[in-house]
Amino acid sequence: MLRFYTAGESHGQALLTFLSGLPAGLRVNLEFVNHELHRRQLGYGRGGRQKIEKDRADVFAGVRHGQTIGAPIALRIENRDWANWEKILPVEATDSPEAASRKLVAPRPGHADLAGSQKFNFHDARYVLERASARETAARVAAGAFAKLLLREFGTEIASHTIQVRNVGLERAATWDEIRAVNADLESPLRCVDAAVQEKMKAEVDAALKAGDTVGGVFEVVAHNLPVGLGSHAQWDEKLDGKLAQALMSVQAVKAVEIGSGILAAGSFGSEVQDEIWYEKSARKFRRASNRAGGLEGGITNGEDLVIRGFLKPISTLRKPLGTVDMVTKEPVQAAYERSDWCVVPAGGVAGESMVALVLADAFLQKFGGDSLAEMRRNFESYAQQIDEF
Ligand SMILES: Cc1cc2nc3c(=O)[nH]c(=O)nc-3n(C[C@H](O)[C@H](O)[C@H](O)COP(=O)(O)O)c2cc1C
Q1: Is residue 284, in this structure, part of any structural domain at all?
Q2: pLDDT at residue 12 in the model
Q3: What three-state secondary structure class fits 58?
Q4: What pLDDT, on a 0 to 100 scale, did the predictor assign at position 339?
Q5: What is the model's pLDDT at position 233?
Q6: Which residues on adjacent β-strands are paired with residue 300?
Q7: What is the pLDDT of residue 338?
Q8: pTM, 2 dp
Q9: Residue 355 forms part of a structural domain
Q10: How far apart, in whole angstroms, are the C-alpha atoms of residue 385 and residue 390?
Q11: How far apart are CA 300 and CA 242, in angstroms?
């Protein structure tokens, strides 16, 4: 129902996002969209690029008089760094020395450089890395902000926090209030809810920088106040857990996804991992005593918070370069170094929130779909009544 595409290279003119399927009549707060883009640029362990870019989305289509009109939305985020790359990556054919100087023939292990060059038949990984770069997540975050605006109309909020950097982990559950508070705090270096743990995480980031190395970690995305019944158990490709896993796994450097306590559950007894059900008569609501399932059972939301984690590998580009092979001469060389981040866990979390928001907004549209927000709201309210009377 909700489709989105992105285009644009890391050092090209701009990133573009096309988003189709939102209902008409959704109020669009561009300040919120730009605030989300800003959040993606924050975080302890980021390289020089974030100082150059001050991302802002310009709307070219689909929003008029401050609201969606049912037409596809087109957004453009300018790459400020383009000024430094105009001669290197012009649209026109070129034999300029600038372009030749930025050819990349020493593919970096852990990047799409070599496999992409072989696949697309280039002996220059520049074309591949320009698109594989996580700069593309800015375009996703812009689309995700629109999805969040839709979800907010129905009371659903999404936030993320950092629960591990290298091997330093947050060893306790965080409450929704803590997660929401740390999301609002733009000064928080790693978006971890526990100040003492965050200091230890920062020390890991510092140690990596000093050693010319990099670190990965884990971010957790939480969607709060979801209705029961998004997604379906009925077909493999309708299961919401599967859709969310694909969406989160598609974020650059995410190598594993966990829903609820999935990893711990695999090593436990059944009696230790299921969430017992009880009924709160006064609220007329079914409740779970715990939320180890992370808000999903059988691929369907069960009304608890959705809890999903993305495991990021350490950044592949190292100042202390790894061994590789020159794609032209086939001789051993050291991998190329491009200005790079050395810890991106908080930014990965913002990209993760956006992907979760897009999947959930799509599920909302499937369940409550309508051409206008008013029609969608009527469908939502009628379903809420069904659940209340169940
Ligand atoms: C927000 C974010 C920023 C990233 N920044 C960098 C970076 O500066 N340098 C780098 O080598 N990798 C960076 N990555 C990871 C690479 O884009 C990614 O590892 C690479 O494209 C290969 O894809 P894969 O790890 O998903 O297989 C970043 C990832 C995210 C989520």
Answers
A1: no
A2: 97
A3: strand
A4: 83
A5: 98
A6: 297
A7: 79
A8: 0.98
A9: yes
A10: 8
A11: 10
Q: Which CATH number fits the domain that encloses residue 50?
A: 3.60.150.10
Amino acid 248: pLDDT: 98
Position 323 scores a pLDDT of: 97
Residue 269 lies in a domain: no
| AA identity, residue 116 | G
Separation CA 2–CA 22 (nearest Å): 7
By most ligand atoms within 8 Å of CB, the mutation choice from 36, 133, 338 for ligand 1 is 133
User: Which protein residue has the closest C-alpha to ligand 1 atom 24?
Assistant: 253
Question: By residue range, what is the domain housing residue 239?
Answer: 3-260+295-389
pLDDT at res. 114: 98
What residues does ligand 1 touch, defined as CB less than 6 Å away? 47, 110-112, 132-134, 137, 251-253, 313, 315-317, 340-341, 344, 347-348, 351
Mean pLDDT, the chain, whole residue set: 96
CA of 110 to the centre of ligand 1 (A): 9
| Closest Cα to atom 22 of ligand 1 | 111
The whole-angstrom separation of Cα 158 and Cα 153 is 13
> Nearest CA to 148 among 22, 8, 289?
22
Cα-to-centroid distance, 277 and ligand 1 (Å): 41
Contact 43, 343 (CB under 8 A): yes
CA of 252, closest atom in ligand 1: 26
The confidence score (pLDDT) of residue 48 equals: 76
Probe ligand 1: pick from 313, 324, 344, 353, max atoms within 8 Å of CB?
344
Q: How far is the CA of 308 from the centre of ligand 1 (A)?
A: 20
Question: Which residue has a Cα nearest atom 11 of ligand 1?
Answer: 317
Q: What is the pLDDT of residue 368?
A: 98
Does residue 48 fall inside a structural domain? Answer: yes
Instruction: Give the burial class of 284: count Cβ atoms within 10 A of its Cβ; 0-12 exposed, 13-18 middle, 19 or more buried.
Output: exposed
Number of domains in the chain: 1
What confidence tens digit (pLDDT) does each residue in 263-284 have? 999 999 999 999 999 999 999 9
- Ligand 1, pocket-test mutation among 318, 341, 343, most atoms within 8 A of CB: 341
Residues of the chain with pLDDT under 70: none
Other CB atoms within 10 A of residue 82 CB: 14
How many A from CA of 135 to the centre of ligand 1? 9
Measuring from atom 12 of ligand 1, which residue has the nearest CA?
A: 315
